[in-house]
Amino acid sequence: MEPHFPALSEIKSAFPKADLSAKKEKYASVITSLVTEFNQRFQDFSVIEKQIKLFSTPFLVDAEEVEESLQLELIEMQCDDSLKSQHQLLSLPDFYQSLDHAKFPLMRRHAKRMMSLFGSTYICEQTFSLLNQNKSRLRSRMTDSHLCEVLRVSTTKLSPDIPFVNPLEFFQFSFKQEKI
């Protein structure tokens, strides 16, 4: 182990009486628990690992490992040199967008499925971030129904058309105006 970690031999020589075996066991158990935690959290990805590989690197996937409905389109794609160069030049969404609708309908549908997985994750993270911003300790009296309304307004891309809603520009003031 020491040839791979030269700094470790320096530490051992600097602290000859230190019990490094106990520390190694401690860190080994922490790393083992981290590996277990990662495996549990990302077990969903292991189920769709082949589908993700097909989406991200279609020219490196063995066609026999792909479901039968996609095999013919994948082989045709892998044999086309212009598509290989396009794949290297374009982003993944742009590459799949550029595929011929008639020639590769199943590959395009597969790509849309894969992209929607990560798009929905992003939307979920953004909404949760807005939720945390709106329901802070300073706004703790906000009810769940009101929070739902605030989130709906925060996540929508619509903007009000004020001139259409109020064409006469007649404003109501909530206080009495006095002359000075």
From TrEMBL:
InterPro entries per record: HATC_C_dom
Residues annotated as domain HAT C-terminal dimerisation: 95-150
Pfam families: Dimer_Tnp_hAT
Top-level lineage group: Eukaryota
GO MF annotation terms: protein dimerization activity
Name listed for the protein in its UniProt record: HAT C-terminal dimerisation domain-containing protein
Source organism: Scleropages formosus
